[in-house]
Amino acid sequence: MGGPGEQLADLGEWELLRRLAAFAPEGQFEDDAALLSETSGRQLVVNTDVLVEGLHFSDATMEPADLGWRAAAANLSDLAAMGCRTVVGLTVGLVAPASTPWPWVEGVYRGLHQALQRYGGTLLGGDCSGGAQRLLAITALGHLGLGPIHRSSGRPGDLLVSTGPHGLSRLGLALLLGELAPGAVTQALEARAIEAHRRPLPRFDAVEALERSQPKGQPWRVAGTDSSDGLVAAVASIARASGCQALLDHGALPLDAELAGLPQGEAWCLAGGEDFELVLALDPAWAEALVAALPGASLLGALAAGQGVAWRQGNRPFPSACAGFTHFR
Fold it and tell me: Does domain 151-311 have CATH number 3.30.429.10?
C-alpha cells in the first residue's frame, strides 16, 4: 500500500482516507458521517471530529466558549451534510495538560451546551485524559430526515448549489490574527466575519428547505457535503465520489458582496474553509427550487462527464492553490 518511508504529510488527508478505507466496508469512508439502521426503522447518523490546539484552534483567536460552540457546530454540520434533521447529542473526549485552568474547561463545555440548547440533543458523556496538548474529540449523533445525502450520488447534468456565501470565516481569522491593515474592512463586515469564524451555524435549515423543495414525484437523490475544508475541496469531493467533473461558473461564485472588494476575496471564497455551508449536486429542477426556497443559496456550476474541477467558461486557468485545508502539514 505504500513505502516504509512514507509519512502522513506525503499522503495528505484524501490518500490517507483512501488507504484506511481498505479496513472498512466498501464505501464506508466516502461521506461526512456514517449511517446506522435502528430496529425502529430510523437511521442514526454518527460523526466524529478531532480539534487539536495549534492546528484547529488557538487562544489567540477565540474564547473557550467560542471553541466549545465551534467544536459542536463542526460536528453538527457533518450531520446536516448527511441529511440529518434531529440531533440526539454529543460525546466529548477531552485531552489537556494538568496545568490547564478549570475556567478554560468550563468555558468550552459552556459553549458546547449553548450549541446543544440551540440545535437540540444532550451532552451524552465522554472521557477525559491528561496529555501534552489540548485536544477535543467530539462524536455527534442524530437522526436522518427524508433521505440521505451521499457524496457519490451526483450525476452528469446535476447543478451545484451553495447554501450560502464563502470566505467570511477566513476573513474573520485574518482579522483576528492581524493579517489585514486597520480599516481594511468596515466595522460591520469585521463583526460579521469574526462571528462567522467563532460561531458558525450548521445548516439544518437548508436540509429542511431541501426537503420542502423536492419536486413532486421526483425520487430522493442528493449529492453533497459541507464546506468545512473549503468550497473547492467540497466540490472536488462530490465530483470524485460521483465519478464526474465539476465545472464552476466564475461569475457565480458564492462570494459575499463586501468581501469581493478585497484582493484575497476570491481565494478565500474558493479555499478559505470553515464556512460550514452545504454544497449540493441536484437535478436541475430541484436545484432551482431549492435556490428559490432558501435565502442566500445560489447556483455555482454543474457536474459533467470527466474528472476534477475546472471553470465552465473560457480558458481561464483554475487556481492551483485551491485544494483547501490540510490536516497534515
Answer: no
The grid coordinates listed for 231 are 468550497
Residue 65, pLDDT > 70, answer yes
Q: Which helix (H) or strand (E) holds 150?
A: none
What are the residues facing 127 on neighbouring strands?
93
List beta partners, residue 52. 135
Nearest CA to 110 among 140, 141, 76, 69?
A: 69
Phi then psi for residue 226, to 5 deg, are: -95, 165
CATH match for 31-144 among 3.40.50.300, 2.40.10.220, 3.20.20.450, 3.30.1330.10: 3.30.1330.10
- Give 79's contacts (C-beta < 8 A, 6+ positions apart): 33, 45, 47, 87, 140, 141, 142, 202
pLDDT tens profile 94-148: 999 999 999 999 999 999 999 999 999 999 999 999 999 999 999 999 999 999 9
Q: Report the alpha-carbon distance of residue 68 to residue 113 in Å, rounded.
A: 8
Q: Whats the size of the chain, residue-wise?
A: 329
Domain range list for the chain: 31-144, 151-311
What's the grid cell of residue 271? 479555499
Asked if 75 and 49 touch (Cβ cutoff 8 Å), the reply is yes
- Written as one string, the DSSP assignment of 70-132 is HHHHHHHHHHHHTTEEEEEEEEEEEEE-TT--HHHHHHHHHHHHHHHHHH--EEEEEEEEE-S
Q: What share of the chain is helix, strand, coil (3-state, %, to 5)?
A: 35, 25, 40
Contact 275, 200 (CB under 8 A): yes
**Local confidence band at 328 (pLDDT 50, 70, 90 cut-offs):** very low
84-96 and 122-130 beta bridge pairing: parallel
Q: What is the pLDDT of residues 290-316, one digit of tens each?
A: 999 999 999 999 999 999 999 998 667
